[in-house]
Amino acid sequence: MSVERQRTAAVIGTGTIALGWIALFAARGLDVRVSSTRSDAEAHVRAELVRYAATLPEGPLDPEELFARLEFTASVDAAVEGADVVQENALEDLALKQKLFARIAAAAPRDALLLSSTSTLLPDDLGAELPTPGRVVVGHPFNPPHIVPLVEVVASERAEPGLVDRAVGFYRELGKTPVVLRRAVPGFVANRLQSALLRESIHLVREGVVTVDELDAVVTASIGSRWAVVGPFQAFHLGGGAGGLRHWFAHLGDGLERSWDGLGRPPVDADTVALLLEQAEASFGQESYDALATRRDQGQNAVIAALTELS
Amino acid sequence: MSVERQRTAAVIGTGTIALGWIALFAARGLDVRVSSTRSDAEAHVRAELVRYAATLPEGPLDPEELFARLEFTASVDAAVEGADVVQENALEDLALKQKLFARIAAAAPRDALLLSSTSTLLPDDLGAELPTPGRVVVGHPFNPPHIVPLVEVVASERAEPGLVDRAVGFYRELGKTPVVLRRAVPGFVANRLQSALLRESIHLVREGVVTVDELDAVVTASIGSRWAVVGPFQAFHLGGGAGGLRHWFAHLGDGLERSWDGLGRPPVDADTVALLLEQAEASFGQESYDALATRRDQGQNAVIAALTELS
Lengths: 311, 311
What we know:
homodimer, Rossmann fold, N-(1-d-carboxylethyl)-l-norvaline Dehydrogenase, domain 2, 3-hydroxyacyl-CoA dehydrogenase NAD-binding domain-containing protein (chains A, B)
């Protein structure tokens, strides 16, 4: 595993995900070049960094201290010139990202890591217009990236040997938890799992079994705190008692596969959306986005800190 | 909401779930009558209580202190006579439980709470042989019940007014988080959500995207600690930025429902089970059940304590 130290990172974009990376990179001592098409990029980032600096996992930092590590430029070429790593966060538009990466590859050093935060596009497609198409690696964070440990690392089959290790090394150095996907699949892993849970959640609300906030209460009071500690496979392994997963599968037998068919596949039509919004607005919808997001971030930091302390 | 104080609880059974209830009830100061068909019930419970007493959410207690609150009897009639509440944990066999509840209802006080830990049977069916069939209420815990806050409360439509409130009051008094289902549905809520996530998890492992332990790592490093803090609906609400869930649905539009069809429906055949077991045994399967379970329980207590301290 490479332990090379990256010193200059270019961040393309100033949206929510880009801001998380900017805060994290700056907090970890990198020099950060921010490239944005916004005319007010500097003022926007400066204002937004206040909330990000307040919720860094290691505790609050002075946002001006982070801001001092940033340079702004409208030019992608100037941002990536001499950069050790580029983290791209443009809109989820394949043609746009392909052109962007062709430009980035031409202007960045030959050995710069080219990383994309995309949640929906595949590395082979992103690199299609490059002289070495396997060069773009997906480093997909879970929002917000300065807090949530996971980064899904997804590379082309044509990636050069060692490239994935370099991407993993970079994210580890930042304190993240990179997980390398063995093959690219639409939606990657975490979002597919979220989608599976959401599908059944919407089904149960539509069926009148629970409301939106009751469903959330069920999750936080059971599988949420469970899966913060052990993933679903280990959880079921322990659910099988001393016989583990082997006993569990033997005990459930064919019932498990049959149970798939009992799960819902709800329509997401206008009535369904209206029902969900009505219930959401009657509960957490009453609070401001900032208050809720800050509580979420403080909570998630507290959970991660408690588990780090135990381990 | 009734705040009546339950003083004597009868626990039917001495399996894993029963032991969690026994530990919790005794730790909260109830007198506990344990009814079991095991000839070694007393020795078995005494030995097992050591691990349960060590992982109580409020910190370890002396197992002998808990044990001193227990009385043992092979007779269900004797266990429930004069009891304020009965928590039944027999095998998931409808005919057996129907007969058991008929007997419990005949021997227990007329106003005793009759609760079942069943995870698969419905309250209407459980009470079918009672003079007042709506009397049995499901109080389904999430394993282990002395640690995980959730209790799913599911009542018959024929339940007497106030009965659900009494069950909710009982579990609240114990420090649990009861969630009342608005209607009974097979698998209730938490297990259906688990099943939905497991289905996609197995699919991703079968497709070679990640291994069993990589899948678990994705979950603990992202959605696990997220859902310990906010449930899926609030999480997506905040994922939508300041526009919330309304913006999120508008942005995703029809794509959300279409995405359901991209999720997997894996067979659970012999090859699939063999693959999962092989990968599980190569990772967490190397550790003992007791070591893993203790770490899970300590972790979950730490997560809950950290979030309680914040709130």
